[in-house]
Amino acid sequence: MKVCILPQPAEVIDYAADLLVDHLAVMPDTVLGLATGQTMVPLYDELVRRYRDGLVSFAGVTSFNLDEYIGLGPDHPRSFHAFMATALFTPTDMDIQRGHLPRGDAPDPAAEALRYEAMIRAAGGIDLQLLGIGKNGHIGFNEPGSRLASRTCVKALAASTRAANQLLFHSEDDVPRFAITMGIATILDARRCLLLATGRAKAAAVAAMIEGPVSTGCPASALQGHRYATVLLDAAAASDLRHGGDYHLERP
Ligand code: F6R
After folding, report:
1. What angle do CA 60, 64, 65 make, to 5 degrees?
2. Which residue of 19, 58, 114, 199 has the smallest Cβ count within 10 Å?
3. Helix, strand or coil, per DSSP, at residue 33
4. How many CB atoms lie within 10 A of CB 97?
């Protein structure tokens, strides 16, 4: 796990955008794993800016998002389908037909999870997986207690996750209780992982992910076993690390 701590969130976003743009320059037909959430908003904004400046194209990209709420169809304004359409797919030259997310309105969510896992495999697997981290250490919607060997499946959302995500809903009661999420083993199959965390609220989860034992208590800790995982942190998200000085403190 390569850990890089930069002072400000804007530097984290800029570096992540550079890594993605460089990756797409070398491999324009890449299979990207995408994430939603507030951490990703400024990153997608920056990628759209670079697309408009002619610095990157998404025309050859196939993508698979980590997760989707069960019960929300693609047209629901709070669905992750809608989030991705607004944040990245529509403002760029990405072929929306190749931007995949699990269907939250599938009549049989467990069957949809299997179908999604098979689609990822049929696409040749994920070349580069973008990740955020929950305050409880989740990646995707793999909440604490999730099996580290899990594949795409239906998961119940933790109360703290529903509380964190209520911002975009009228109330916490409106936040769906279940999601379809790539499993931890599905995520670890990606040839490269790039996790971003910014802000003090993520500091405890970040410390558990990097310096804690690999454990279901912090699903993100499974990334310690990945052969090519990069973690980009701002100083606030890194503030609970005991060995903070031992990591990259500038772009490696
Ligand atoms: C979103 C996802 C989640 C988020 C995490 C952090 O697709 O899979 O794991 O990355 O909940 O969310 P933010 O960035 O909103 O703090």
Report:
1. 130
2. 114
3. strand
4. 8
Is the pLDDT at 165 greater than 90, yes or no?
Answer: no
Identity of residue 135: K
With a 6 Å cutoff on the Cβ, whether 67 touches ligand 1 is yes
Q: Indicate the CATH number for domain 2-246.
A: 3.40.50.1360
Catalytic residue among 68, 143, 189, 234: 143
Tens of pLDDT, residue by residue over 15-38, are 999 999 999 999 999 999 999 999
Give the pLDDT confidence score for residue 107 in this predicted structure. Answer: 97
Confidence check: pLDDT of 166 > 90: no
DSSP code string of 40-79 = HHHHHHHHHHHHHTTS---TT-EEEESEEETT--TTSTTS
pLDDT given for residue 168 in this prediction: 81
- Known active-site residue 67: yes
Task: Decide if 136 is catalytic.
Answer: yes
Sketch the domain layout of the chain as residue ranges: 2-246
- Given a cut of 90, whether residue 252 has pLDDT beyond it is no
Dihedral sign from CA coordinates of 197, 198, 204, 210 = positive
